[in-house]
Write a structure and sequence with these properties.
The complex is a heterodimer of chains A (263) and B (464). With 263 residues, chain A is mostly beta strands. Helix content of chain A is 10%, strand content 43%. In chain A, the strands form three sheets. An eight-stranded antiparallel beta sheet of chain A has the order 5-4-7-8-1-2-3-6, with no helix packed on it. Chain A is globular, with a radius of gyration of 23 Å. Chain B has a three-stranded antiparallel beta sheet with strand order 2-6-5. Chain B has a two-stranded antiparallel sheet with strand order 3-4. The N terminus of chain B is likely disordered. Classes of the chains: A mainly beta (263), B mainly alpha (464). Chains A and B meet through helix 1, strand 16 and strand 17 of A and strand 1, helix 14, helix 15 and helix 20 of B. Strand 16 of chain A pairs antiparallel with strand 1 of chain B, so a sheet runs across the interface.
Chain lengths: 263, 464
């Protein structure tokens, strides 16, 4: 009994301090953004071989938004892109079109289509949004082809085709194979502040694709690169400083990623 | 909405959270050390009387001579002037401007540590005290009499400093917001605050007397002076003298409001650490609540931050008061008020440990900036290169994450042990019977374990 009385205050006070601290843990709902790099396909006509860019698919509260940005297209040309269920490396890149309803026909809203016209500089972008959520793993890729003529497939951006349930950022960063891309729209990172995690000595590689002109600043490592509106910059440096660092749009003072380097 | 702890505005990196295994080790060591301390502790108070050993008379005479004092004072005034000028005229970038790093890192974090080792090193450099003393001397020379001061209300004690301490950290952590986003304090606001504070301090010194105000109301004298009580040097009978480490702290909390000063120190450091971690969700909810009630974004953010900062103060005070009330139940205990003031000094090492644990890496990195480019180019505009170091940068590789973790845990454990020693010693002085004294210390042990483990907790999970 004496011992209980002695220990009780320790327990009570410690508990009180911890309870004080613990109230209010983070309950932010993550929105899932899937990103893929646009790469020219073998079937692309010679004039479109230099196409590059990115496709993004984001599911937010039962809605799905698909965005596409491309450069290196033929200037002033109509293009169409579709969401496919398969990966880019299939014999028929992308496989069949994604459809919400098998009986729903091959036009939106059953399918997801993006139509756009490239600018004088050969760049183009498109965004479409539906009020339904594409089931996880079924958003295989986005494939672009010309709207008229032979409609040859030009380029493909792999989303979930090769690997279901992959969200951009942390996972692909640690896998090492693919380079995560942080997509900035209206000066804000799509899908929230990206998390990049590495171990000391790793190669830190990521890209920033921005629709606004700014400077991308990796704090601590103090790396600064200008990104033009609609452009992409790549970072590739050894993770030699341990700690947590901000990656920021310097001019807007907007954090776009958190870089963690563990020992 | 994002919240930035103070370090964000200046430093380009944040500490990694302590890994779970190190947290477990740290907490275990704290518990084991505590119980070992109880069983092997001494039985006669050791710190109640300070034993002074005077240093060499020549050294003492030189350091305490009027010209050296005047020079030190001038140096302090000049540096405050440089900081204010840089803040007003220099770049808006917090990390490139001399003002913020000098005021909030070099001084605000540097003086507590140096003072705790050496003694009151801030006193000779205190710019306001220097101006106050010079004004007093000038007054005497012209008027031929000592300036007449109002009697300081004794009940007020160190409360102005305790509230001022909260205000300084509020300015540092809470004030700098923009559109509902914490952006950190900007150099210009820091400079304006320094000038406003200078005016206020000089007015108070004129009212109550320079030394009187430095002892009670001048935030920095009181705050740094508190840590200086742990240090080994002091002035005794007009001579520089050595004393035992920690010993001078036993007579620190003799003025009302002293406990509030040390509690404010622990609470503000906790708030800075917790606002990004365990308190983040709660602060965000209260921010949304205020916004929903029609408050502007800036007002809502400042109000919710302020609320939680005060809650931290109340929480730390509550834990301390639980310990004090517990001790009151032990046979032969002195009155509550005496206990409350009597054990306040045992929290000073904990407050210092919190500072070291939270800001050690920031200090090491920012001091590189302080002594290279900030010194050569205080305005941060690229227009000057006084010492040829304007182009230097901060080398972030000099501290590995492991080094920082070990320093953090070691600081908390050492602070814990020192706090226990001071509390044990005071208990021996208050309770005539050794067994009662020991029994009372279960309560302080609980308080210290709570603070230390909470400190570890803030470092380990707060960013996860």
């Amino acid at each position: 009994m004496r011992n209980v009385i002695r220990v009780a205050p320790v327990v009570v006070v410690t508990w009180a301090a911890f309870a004080l601290a613990a109230c209010g843990s983070d309950s932010n709902e993550e929105t899932e953004a899937v990103r893929g790099q646009l790469e020219a396909l073998p079937s692309a006509p010679a004039s479109d071989k230099a196409v590059a860019g990115e496709a993004t698919l984001q599911r937010v509260e039962g809605r799905t938004t698909v965005s596409l940005r491309a450069t290196g297209l033929e200037p002033g040309t109509e293009y169409v892109a579709h969401l496919h269920t398969g990966g880019c490396d299939q014999a028929d890149p992308g496989g069949p079109h994604f459809q919400f309803d098998a009986e729903g026909g091959d036009e939106p809203p059953s399918e997801i289509h993006l139509e756009f016209r490239s600018g004088a500089d050969g760049s183009g972008k498109a965004t479409t949004s539906t009020n339904r959520e594409v089931p996880a793993g079924e958003a295989g890729s986005v494939v672009i082809h010309e709207a008229g003529g032979e409609q040859a497939k030009i380029a493909c951006a792999e989303l979930e085709g090769g690997h279901a349930h992959d969200s951009a950022g942390e996972e692909s960063a640690s896998r090492g194979g693919e380079v995560p891309t942080i997509v900035v729209r209206n000066g804000e990172p799509v899908g929230g502040v990206a998390e990049l995690e590495y171990s000391a000595g790793d190669d830190v590689r990521f890209e920033v694709n921005s629709d606004v002109a700014d400077e991308v600043h990796v704090h601590g490592y103090d790396l600064l690169q200008e990104v033009p509106a609609g452009g992409t910059v790549s970072f590739d440096f050894p993770a030699e400083i341990e700690g947590i660092f901000e990656v920021e749009l310097e001019g807007r003072k907007t954090q776009i990623a958190g870089l963690t380097v563990n020992p | 909405m994002t919240l930035l702890p103070f370090a964000h505005a200046l430093a380009a990196r944040q500490d990694l959270p302590i890994p779970a295994w190190l947290f477990a080790w740290g907490a275990s060591i704290v518990l084991i050390v505590s119980f070992v301390a109880l069983s092997v502790a001494w039985r006669k108070p050791r710190f109640e009387a300070t034993h002074w050993r005077p240093l060499g008379a020549g050294l003492s005479r030189v350091l305490l001579s009027a010209p050296v004092q005047v020079l030190c004072g001038l140096f302090g005034v000049a540096l405050l002037g440089v900081a204010a000028y840089s803040g007003l005229r220099g770049t808006e970038a917090p990390d490139r401007n001399f003002a913020l790093t000098f005021l909030f890192v070099t001084c605000w974090l540097g003086f507590p540590v140096v003072s705790a080792l050496l003694g009151d090193v801030f006193r000779p450099f205190n710019p306001w005290r220097a101006v106050g003393r010079a004004t007093g001397t000038g007054f005497r020379a012209i008027a031929g009499q000592r300036p007449v001061h109002m009697a300081y209300p004794q009940w007020l004690g160190r409360w102005p400093a305790a509230i001022g301490l909260l205000a300084v950290v509020w300015l540092e952590v809470v004030y700098g917001t923009s559109g509902g986003v914490a952006v950190g304090l900007d150099p210009e606001s820091a400079a304006v605050a320094a000038l406003v504070y200078s005016g206020y301090t000089l007015a108070m010194m004129a009212l109550f007397g320079t030394e009187e105000w430095c002892e009670r109301g001048e935030i920095f004298s009181v705050y740094f002076g508190m840590f200086a009580r742990l240090g080994i040097l002091g002035v005794q009978d007009g001579r520089l003298a050595r004393r035992e480490p920690l010993s001078a702290s036993a007579r620190w909390a003799t003025l009302p409001g002293s406990a509030a000063v040390v509690i404010a120190s622990i609470a503000t450091t906790s708030f800075d650490g917790a606002s990004e971690g365990p308190l983040k969700g709660a602060i965000e909810s209260s921010f949304d609540w205020f916004v929903d009630r029609g408050l502007g974004l800036t007002a809502a953010l400042r109000l919710s931050d302020t609320t939680f900062m005060l809650l931290c103060f109340a929480g730390v005070a509550l834990v301390y008061m639980l310990g004090v009330c517990g001790m009151r139940t032990v046979r032969g205990a002195p009155p509550l008020a005496k206990l409350r003031a009597g054990f306040a000094h045992s929290l000073i090492p904990i407050a210092l440990a919190y500072l070291v644990a939270h800001y050690f890496s920031l200090f090491v990195f920012q001091e590189q900036a302080q002594f290279t480019y900030l010194l050569s180019d205080p305005l941060g505009t690229g227009s000057t290169d006084l010492f040829g170091t304007a182009a230097s940068g901060v080398d972030y590789t000099i501290l590995s994450a492991n080094t920082i973790w070990y320093v953090q845990v070691a600081a908390l454990v050492v602070g814990h042990v020192l706090g226990l020693m001071l509390a044990h010693d005071r208990a021996l002085a208050y309770w005539p019977d050794y067994r009662d004294a020991s029994r009372s210390q279960y309560w302080m042990l609980a308080v210290m374990v709570a603070f230390t483990c909470f400190g570890l907790y803030l470092l380990s999970f707060s960013n996860q």
